[in-house]
Amino acid sequence: MSHPTSFGAILACDAAQVSTVSDSADEVDFWDKPQEACGVFGAYAPSEDVAKLAYFGLFALQHRGQESAGIVTFEGTTLHSHKQMGLVSQVFNEEILDQLPGAIVVGHNRYSTTGSSKVCNAQPAILQTRLGALALAHNGNLVNALTLRDDLMAKEHATTTTTDSELIAIAMADAVNAGQSWCEAAITAFKQAQGAFSLVIGTPDGLIGARDPNGIRPLVIGTLKDPAQDGSIQYVLASETCALDILGATYLRDVAPGELVWITPEGLTSQLWAAQPEPKLCIFELIYFARPDSDFHGESLYTYRMRLGRQLAQEHPIEADLVMGVPDSGIPAAIGYAEVSGIAYMEGLIKNRYVGRTFIQPTQSMREDGIRMKLNPLRDVLTGKRVVVVDDSIVRGTTSRKLVSALRKAGAKEVHMRISSPPVTHPCFYGIDTDSQDQLVAANLTLPEIAEKIGVDSLGYLSIPGMLQAAQDDDRNFCNACFTGDYPVDVPEGLKRSKLKLEKVSH
Ligand code: SF4
Fold first, then answer.
1. How far apart are CA 57 and CA 202, in angstroms?
2. Atom of ligand 1 nearest to the CA of 216
3. How far is residue 137's CA from residue 219's CA, in Å, rounded to a whole number?
4. CA–CA dist 65, 59 (Å, integer)
């Protein structure tokens, strides 16, 4: 990912590169959902305009990161790069894309917290080696970034960013310079990294796609029809299948946990680099982060989320006049809930589709009303009605409270909230920006206390068995740590303390 590691203070950005978004800009927080950290994209497509492929791939993955975007292309041994703060559509135009020729491309969308809005942290990370340049795009988060940084600094390697992603690139470049091939060096670097990493790495000789041994973040492979019909092989790598769809690429398969794929003019080769891969895909990708039109395990997440809603209706029935979802991510589960409960599904909230991140502070009265920047309640639908509102998760509870208040102001007689995931009680260390545990409402209050805090007549969360049943799998294949605290990759004590409420150690 791209989260700055806490050694940021010792690492300097090139001042000339710092964008117009100031570090101190106070971004307006309209939504207390966890934030996805990154989208990655890569293609080996000699017959295509690879920069445009990356542009549209990243465009489809924009929901995974909105702070910066970058594309690097390889034209033989020449590397072309453009990275900047902003949305994909703001960072690139035809003229810029025309200056990024090549046969291989790597692209990245990044989300990061306020305070690290620096273009020097934008990816792909680029490093020079004895074999030429490498460009690395990372989704996930390393839990051993501090140790890895110390190890690399002990070898007198310098960093130019504050990201853990660059550390993987440095470790790989180090191994290349020590005489290893691209793939050997990548594996040497992966073995030093702990945590979540789905990676796309471009080199002058080929494209690498790889996932950590648990495959916590997704990565898929697609094939592109060759417009030249000359039999050349064209492959695409992307965080989600929605980025293949936009290009007309065909889904081939997922990169497996602990796998490395190497794509060259000779085709795609694969090796399992991890000794004991153990799939632990982030279940929050399915519940909320990934786009509903992306496929996971052979079906769209829209279908999966409808199933979550059906399960939720069985676990938490209620008498009501209408069921509505919180746009957009709560809608498929609300439709599933309505289907099983027999209560009519209606839209009670209309989303302002063009609201994004803004650094302009609203007026005090707008701030108090909060939710209306993003969602506007439909008075004539809601007046006098007993309403079931389905959302995908509650993090701090602040947005839910504003939402419920807005529904009541619009005339709802009763508001019953149903959540299509279990209570979020633990923070994420694997690339999702969740609050520390003391900010998570379900880690600190009982169910009746949460209901009172957000102002609902009743509240029901999906159970953990219900969530897994809807996934049509057992819990061996998912990371569920947000809901259970059962972290699949050990989190070092210091990092744990930064986000978890730990028992006081007795001396
Ligand atoms: S802790 Fe939660 S958000 Fe993080 S990887 Fe695990 S399930 Fe996903």
1. 16
2. 5
3. 12
4. 10
Residue nearest to atom 5 of ligand 1 (CA): 282
148 C-alpha vs ligand 1 centroid, how far in Å?
A: 22
User: 68 C-alpha to center of ligand 1: Å?
Assistant: 23
Is 363 exposed, middle or buried (CB count within 10 Å of its CB: 0-12, 13-18, 19+)?
exposed
Name which of 243, 155, 141, 235 is nearest 194 in CA terms. Answer: 141
Pairing between β-strand 414-419 and β-strand 386-391 as defined by DSSP bridges? parallel
Which residues line the pocket of ligand 1, CB cutoff 6 A?
216, 282-284, 428, 430, 432, 479-482
Report how far residue 432's alpha carbon sits from residue 112's, in angstroms, rounded to the nearest whole number.
10
Which structure tokens are listed for 308?
């979550």
Walk along the chain (507 residues) and give the pLDDT tens digit of each residue: 433 333 222 222 222 222 222 223 333 344 566 666 799 999 999 999 999 999 999 999 999 998 899 999 999 999 999 999 999 999 999 999 999 999 999 999 988 643 366 778 889 999 999 999 999 999 999 999 999 999 999 988 888 888 889 999 999 999 999 999 999 999 999 999 999 999 999 999 999 999 999 999 999 999 998 766 666 779 999 999 999 999 999 999 999 999 999 999 999 999 999 999 999 999 999 999 999 999 998 999 999 999 999 999 999 999 999 999 999 889 999 999 999 999 999 999 988 766 555 556 666 666 656 666 678 899 999 999 999 999 999 998 988 999 999 999 999 999 999 999 999 999 999 988 777 898 899 999 999 999 999 999 999 999 999 999 888 765 568 999 999 999 999 999 888 888 887 654 333
Report how far ligand 1's centroid is from the alpha carbon of 248 (Å).
30
Q: Which two tokens stand for residue 107?
A: 């692209």
> For 386-422, what is the HEC assignment?
EEEEEECCCCCCHHHHHHHHHHHHCCCCEEEEEECCC
Residue in 13, 38, 183, 242 annotated catalytic: 38
Contacts of 22 (CB under 8 A, 6+ apart): 117
pTM score: 0.89
Neighbours of 490 (CB within 10 A): 13
Q: Which residue has the tokens 């409402």?
A: 441
Nearest protein Cα to ligand 1, atom 4: 428
Is 183 a residue of the active site? no
In the reported structure, the alpha carbon of residue 103 is separated from the centroid of ligand 1 by a whole-number distance in angstroms of 35
- Ligand 1 atom with the smallest distance to the CA of 282 is 8
Q: In the predicted model, what is the mean pLDDT of the chain?
A: 87
Nearest atom, ligand 1, residue 481 CA: 1
Hey, is 351 helix, strand or coil? strand
Pocket test for ligand 1, best of 430, 434, 487, 495 (most atoms within 8 A of CB): 430
Ligand 1 centre distance from Cα of residue 210 (Å): 19
